[in-house]
Amino acid sequence: MGNVVAFGGAWLSVRSQGGRLLLRVEDIDRERSRDEIAEGQRRDLEWLGLCWDEETLRQSERDYAPWLRALSSTTYRCQCTRRQVREAGGVYPGTCRDLDHQQGALRLRLPSGGRGFLDQSCGQQQMSFEHTSDPILVTRVGNVAYPLAVVVDDIADGVTEVVRGCDLLAHTAAQMELWELLGASPPSYQHMPTVLGSDGRKLSKSHASTSVRELREAGWSAQDVWRCVLPWLGIHGAETLSDAAERYLPSGVQRGPITVLRATRPGELDYGALTSR
Ligand SMILES: [Zn+2]
What we know:
By secondary structure, the chain is an alpha/beta fold. The protein contains nine helices and twelve strands. It has helices at residues 2-17, 35-48, 65-69, 82-87, 146-156, 172-181, 212-217, 222-232, 241-247, and strands spanning 22-23, 54-55, 75-78, 105-108, 114-119, 123-128, 136-138, 161-165, 188-192, 195-196, 258-263, 269-271. The longest helix has 16 residues, at 2-17. The radius of gyration is 20 Å and the shape is globular. The chain binds zinc ion. Zinc ion (ZN) binds at residues 78-80, 95-96.
């Protein structure tokens, strides 16, 4: 359901503005990426009636080396373990910034201060880099990491608007820095509400019966799914998805997480209280 909210929001936003919607397979994490997962996601999107205009290069096909070279003056090697970062409170304190290691993970050196931006759904945001870890761009074993890959992909694909889940909101200011360091103007951002399970955690495979495939197998139609999701996106009384796109306004999107306790009959979910930020 969380993916339906995020991709559905992207679809509605693009269609409401007459833009082009790109589909990208983000398979930078080779161990967790399988062709059948991407295939299942395409099938889900088609079943939901969400069409895209173009499928762009997948991450495993792109060469990130030239982009990394452009960042050489603002990166440094870090040899801290995950455990050390956890023990420092979860935010990397910049231990290796001036140690001049020759090996280790490659981190981006964020500037001091912070950054403000206008989120199209969540409103004005102000983020301090004092509470942000310098992002890892390349892992200690030499794999390009997601924070670098996603920004390079978006720049190379000419992306002008990013619509995604609120769980990524906290990373946005650092990503905007990366856009500028790579010589590009950051896109506009819209962060959609996350959908949580009854335990207050983001919906995932461990929560029963709310994946698109499971709902479909339980007899839900695509219309049943949209009847639940569209009101979260601020749309009421739309007959079709194109009808919904005409009514879509980023400012109408529900703020704060949505808690789904369980799927009941087709078209009906048990909700927790809708909490506002
Ligand atoms: Zn370090």
